[in-house]
Amino acid sequence: MKLLTLIALIFSLTACSPPEPGTDEWYEEKYNEFLETIPNADLTFEEFKAILENPVYEEDNLNDNDKIANDTEKNMTLVTIQTSLGEIKLELNDDKAPITVENFKTIAASGYYEGTIFHRVINGFMVQGGGLTADMNNKSSETSPIQNEANNGLSNDRGTIAMARTGDPHSATSQFFINHKDNGFLNHTGENLQGWGYAVFGAVTEGMDVVDQIADVATGNVGPYQDVPLEVITIESVTISE
């Protein structure tokens, strides 16, 4: 993430009368501009030039804390959730959560999510949906529970989507939630009842403002359910594109 931010900074720097891109003068000018922006950066001219020439390192050249991936090479599924409050776009990580993503795609393709609602909303925590109808009846996805993939290294950070489940770690079917803030306590810590955590399988790329709107609605109790939005928030469609 640090390297991606660095690359974005580098390419955003401009000069009033830039020399021809790719020349030594151009690299030197960009390097000087970069140092003016981040004077304490621990980056030599040679390293800076290498980033501009080849912004994505091979995985073997990075340690575990600095690994980055080229988004164009990731196996990602693009999803659009159309809600009654607006559109939420996500990228689902097929590589890190293949079972969970395939399950979500199968259920979405069946049309199951259409007409379900966001039935549990806690501002500053998460928004949950994909299992109940507007009259607060459970809607069966007619699919079997899936293996919990929370041990895939993905964290429950703000804007990520994860599977909801019961107390059984491997009980997720259709319900999902979008983290409204960083919820590290939901992450996997061990392959036991207390430590399995909740499986993240993607992240919002556009529409966090819609998630914020959902999180901000008034909620109350409806029958046995708590934190139910008093305004019905419907999932109108879920569209999958590879």
Overview in brief:
By secondary structure, the chain is α+β, with helices and mostly antiparallel strands.
Low-confidence stretches: 10-17, 53-73
Spatial sequence of strands, sheet with the most strands: 3-4-6-5-7-2-1-10
Helix content: 10-25%
CATH topology value of the largest domain:
Cyclophilin
Average predicted confidence as pLDDT: 82
CATH class division of the largest domain: Mainly Beta
- Write the CATH homologous superfamily of the largest domain: Cyclophilin-like
Strand content bin: 25-35%
Report the biggest beta sheet as strand number plus sense, adding barrel if it closes. 8 strands, antiparallel
Order of helices and strands: HHHEEHEEEEEHEEE
Pairing-aware structural class of the strands and helices? Answer: alpha+beta
The number of strands is 10
CATH architecture identity of the largest domain: Beta Barrel
Please indicate the count of domains. 2
Give the distance, in angstroms, between the N- and C-terminal Cα atoms: 24 Å
Gyration radius from CA atoms, angstroms: 22 Å
Shape: globular
Number of helices: 5
